[in-house]
Amino acid sequence: MAKKRSLKEYRAKRDFTVSPEPSGTARAAHVSKRPASKLIFCVQKHLASHLHYDFRLEHNGVMLSWAVPKGPSLNPADKRLAMQVEDHPRDYADFEGVIPSGYGAGVVMLWDYGTWEPPGDINEGLEKGHFKFTLNGTKLKGSWAFARLGRTFGSKPQWLLIKHKDEWAGTLDILTFAPLSVKSGQDFKGILAKGYPEEWKVAPPAKGGEAGKMYATLLAKLRPKKPAKKNLWVSNKA
């Protein structure tokens, strides 16, 4: 029997009076329009305290979720660490926006979206710690696999995300080649400009590291510029 999935942990970590993230009580437009026989997947590029990619597969009423620090790679030689996190609601699958404070504060971009197919029993694969699947997204396609490692991230297991050798594999750096949102066509600056929280003027979500530098650059570009002061000094020289 399939293990029942719960959003209890997801909801406990968030204050939905502040966060624009979906609570899981509604279906997203992308989700509701997809063929009933198809499962959806998405990858969200998340600039939080550290830049990472959130990889999500629809299963048993929720989105199974992994945080992939370096992002997915089309190169089968790259085995990307993927830390399993709490299940997310299905209506999270097309979420894009700014989380102003609290858990996950930062900018979320819908980097890829599409459907996926498990070749066999996904519950058995989750239990054994290895399962293959096929992606049909805008950027990610073809055969992939998750392989569980013998260590955990907090209480959650760590996995490896691996691209199989097929016609969609290669050495192209897809993260650099296709960096923009599949939903809005925007970069982080464009998404942040639409939902720039006032509190970030005083306390940005990240101050150090790669994310801190990126936030400082983004926020500097978004802040209104002060008018230049006129030079009132007049020379008395002839």
Would you mind describing this structure in some detail?
Strand 5 and strand 6 form a beta hairpin. An eight-stranded antiparallel barrel has the order 1-2-3-4-9-8-7-6. Helix 5 packs across helix 6. It has 238 residues and is α+β, with helices and mostly antiparallel strands. The protein starts with 7 loop residues before the first helix and ends in a 16-residue tail after the last helix. Helices cover 18% and strands 34% of the residues.
Q: Key features?
A:
globular
Helix-strand blueprint:
Blueprint: H1 8-12, H2 29-33, E1 39-47, E2 51-59, E3 62-68, E4 79-89, E5 97-99, E6 106-117, H3 122-128, E7 130-137, E8 141-153, E9 156-163, H4 174-177, H5 188-194, H6 209-222
Antiparallel strand pairs: 1-2, 1-6, 2-3, 3-4, 4-9, 5-6, 6-7, 7-8, 8-9
- State the end-to-end distance: 95 Å
Whole-number total of structural domains: 1
Rg, Å, rounded? 21 Å
Number of strands: 9
Average pLDDT over all residues: 87
The helix-and-strand class reads alpha+beta
Q: Approximately what portion of the residues adopt beta-strand conformation? A: 25-35%
Shape: globular
Structure summarized in a few sentences:
Helix 5 (188-194) packs across helix 6 (209-222).
